[in-house]
Design goal:
The chain has 131 residues and is an alpha+beta fold. It contains 5 helices and 5 strands; from the N terminus they run H-E-E-E-E-H-H-E-H-H. A hairpin with a 4-residue loop joins strand 3 and strand 4. The longest helix is centred in the N-terminal third of the chain and has 14 residues. The chain starts with a helix and ends in a 16-residue tail after the last helix. The protein binds iron/sulfur cluster (SF4) (2 copies). One iron/sulfur cluster binds next to helix 2. One iron/sulfur cluster (SF4) binds next to loops.
Length: 131
């Protein structure tokens, strides 16, 4: 049975992987086999710091929020996220900023973009092509 200290160390080591870019805290839309990360932030993302305003209770407050492990399994983290770990067969999502062909469809889902487009998270992740 794992002791509390070991569990705490595992948790801290996992948390330390995150570089706080905030990219994964933006809404995503799937088009066929392509997942598009939009520039529409989760309502709980502080876009000035890229930190979650409700982190300890994020899963209760935001039903769409998921663990890093689940996000990797769903192909929802950017390809250069440390949790992806450079997996060569990872189906990395694309950024809406790099794929304007999805703009119209995304606007239909998030009409608020037409009047007020939130700023994308910083730093912008390195561009990565789908494997
Ligand atoms: S994309 Fe990865 S590094 Fe960036 S905030 Fe999300 S988990 Fe952290
Ligand atoms: S609730 Fe989840 S998706 Fe929203 S800002 Fe917090 S960690 Fe990101």
């Amino acid at each position: 049975m794992p002791d509390d200290d070991a569990e705490k160390r595992r948790f801290e080591a996992s948390e330390a992987l995150c570089r706080r870019c905030g990219v994964c805290c933006h809404h995503k839309v799937r088009f066929g086999d392509v997942v598009v990360i939009t520039d529409v932030p989760c309502e709980f993302l502080d876009t000035a710091t890229n930190l979650c305003a409700v982190y300890p209770e994020r899963f209760r407050r935001q039903p769409l929020c998921s663990t890093a492990e689940s996000s990797v399994a769903a192909g929802a983290l950017p390809g250069d996220c440390p949790y992806v770990g450079g997996k060569s067969d990872y189906p990395a999502p694309v950024l809406l900023a790099d794929h304007p062909e999805y703009e119209q469809a995304v606007n239909a889902i998030f009409p608020e973009r037409l009047g007020h487009a939130p700023k994308p998270a910083k730093p912008r992740p390195a561009r990565r092509s789908r494997p």
